[in-house]
Amino acid sequence: MQLNSEEIRKRAIAESEAAADSRALYEVKMKYLGRAGEVTALLKGMKQVPAEERPAFGKQVNDLRVELEAAFEAQEEKVRAKELEQKLASERVDVTMPGRKGRHGTLHPVTRVRNRLIDIFMGMGFEIYEGPEIESDYYNFTALNTPADHPARDMQDTFYLTDEFLLRTQTSAGQIRLMEKKQPPIKMLSPGRVFRSDDDATHSPMFHQMEGLVVDEHITLCDLQGMLDEFARTMFSETSKTRLRPSYFPFTEPSVEVDVSCAACGGKGCPLCKGTGWIEVLGAGMVNRRVLENCGIDPDRYTGFAFGMGIERIAMLKYGINNIKLLTENDVRFLEQFKD
Ligand code: PHE
User: Fold this and answer.
1) 232 CA → ligand 1 middle, Å
2) Is 101 part of any domain?
3) Contact yes or no for 210/171 (Cβ under 8 A)
4) Whole-model pTM?
5) Predicted confidence (pLDDT) per residue in 96-125, tens digit
6) Do the domain assignments include residue 96?
7) Rounded distance between C-alpha atoms, residue 216 and residue 182, angstroms
8) What element of type H or E holds 246?
9) N or C: which end of the chain has fewer CB within 10 A?
10) Residue 209 C-alpha to ligand 1 middle, in angstroms?
11) Is the bond leading into 271 cis (omega within 30 degrees of zero)?
């Protein structure tokens, strides 16, 4: 039997070098060295080789097999290295590339101011009480010393639901609910939505108030002003001052309106404070003894003060917002300006 091992070697090596990837190389390997491969077939065909030629033939085939195995292995290493290089190149990450920024929201200015107010007053020992938004006429008016024929009812245009029930016009209703349940000492902070039929650049039919109530022995108007001074300094500026002006609310006596020195001009007078140097921020006063009586609290032993402020108004002053509607439109371009 004639064996042209040189021809087979050249052919097999050429084919293995042409194999583009490890899969193709594997096929070449099988074609020659696999169970049905050409070199394997030669070994199997040894029987037909005359006995005297067999050793030489066998050695030749075996040498060919060993040589091809080594050649294929060397080729395999090259192909693997090339494949790894390609894989690394395709998975390459440019770590110097700037990242994609995620958009994240911001707290609404009303929420921010409410949280700030809660922080300030909680720091002074106040507890939060939240009353219902649908109130009875009794809690919203009558118990607050504002009977049905009282002219002060005209101060607030009320949304009535029935003769008896209404959308609360003031968080002051919560004062009654709390004082009915609890004897002094009381230090209550009551945030919430209130509703009035009122609509212009600084009034909206729904807005938020923050109510404060302190009742104990020996509480005076000085305590109120001291606390409000502290509030103004923390909320607006270190140099903010307050001033009390006489006013009228049926449920406080005496009643005051509280101005804060204008943070925009420092009190010199500017368009924001209409040249006065002062900005009105809230209503307050000493709790009317009739209100204490209505709640079963002894007005000869206890006195108290209450205050109520519009959260939108504080937010507008603090951030220089000139139209209350901006606070309900939820335009992202407006809202995203309020970042920490
Ligand atoms: N409830 C009053 C208002 O809405 C504000 C206020 C609260 C005044 C507490 C005095 C005491 O106008």
Assistant:
1) 18
2) no
3) yes
4) 0.71
5) 989 888 888 889 999 999 999 999 999 999
6) no
7) 12
8) strand 242-249
9) C
10) 9
11) no
